[in-house]
Write a sequence for this structure.
């Protein structure tokens, strides 16, 4: 079974600082990995997706993530945080087989201080 | 257009009421999903429809009854709910052609349900 673990339920950074949100996956097959963002009182929006085409994936809003098989990680980064980045971030894993169910991590709440 | 719409945005209902949540997409997607999300928690999968047929039911209580009248619409019928069912209910869709869970899911804004 596939799963993801997000380290840190809450991350706080200053505006302009590096954002690093951690995600580790467990999968017996090459995974499909996703990062979604959820702003307050809204649905989830895809930030980026790993599909094995490239290990460094660039997403929207200046975010990127690097797939590291040796570390089973898919951490999300942004060089410079903006106040508008404050939200809940979910890492998720899917796979090529089985049903159409994606498994989400517990989420990380990002706070950006002025 | 990558929009999934959900109505209503908010719903308050008593434990004896019957209500329905609606979801619509016009992206030609053939897979549609219902999720339940409690505060400060990730979405929990409830149901998956693939080509208008129920493919996954994650052991959801029968007081939740999904329906997929056509490829663009997804309903969730609610009856005799409990206060613990209060949550944000999210609908999502994906292409439904790749198989498995490799596809990007597009989420609606959700319906915030309060059961009194």
């Amino acid at each position: 079974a596939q799963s993801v673990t997000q380290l840190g339920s809450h991350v706080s950074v200053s505006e302009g600082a590096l954002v690093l949100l951690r995600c580790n996956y467990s999968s017996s097959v090459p995974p499909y990995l996703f990062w979604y963002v959820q702003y307050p009182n809204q649905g989830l929006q895809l930030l980026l997706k790993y599909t094995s085409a490239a290990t460094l994936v660039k997403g929207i809003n200046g975010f990127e993530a690097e797939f590291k098989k040796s570390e089973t990680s898919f951490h999300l980064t942004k060089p410079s945080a903006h106040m508008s980045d404050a939200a809940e971030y979910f890492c998720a894993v899917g796979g090529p087989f089985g049903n159409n169910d994606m498994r989400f991590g517990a989420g990380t709440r990002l706070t950006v201080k002025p | 257009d990558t929009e999934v719409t959900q109505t209503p945005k908010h719903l308050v209902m008593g434990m004896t009421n019957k209500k329905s949540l609606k979801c619509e997409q016009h992206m030609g997607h053939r897979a549609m999903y219902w999720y339940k999300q409690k505060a400060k928690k990730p979405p929990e999968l409830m149901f998956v429809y693939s080509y208008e047929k129920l493919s996954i039911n994650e052991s959801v209580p029968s007081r939740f009854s999904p329906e997929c009248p056509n490829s663009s619409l997804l309903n969730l019928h609610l009856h005799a709910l409990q206060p613990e069912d209060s949550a944000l209910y999210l609908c999502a869709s994906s292409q439904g052609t790749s198989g498995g869970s490799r596809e990007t899911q597009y989420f609606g804004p959700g319906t915030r349900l309060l059961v009194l």
Q: What stands out?
A: Chain B has a mean pLDDT of 92. The two ends of chain B are 36 Å apart (CA to CA). The longest strand of chain B covers residues 18-25.
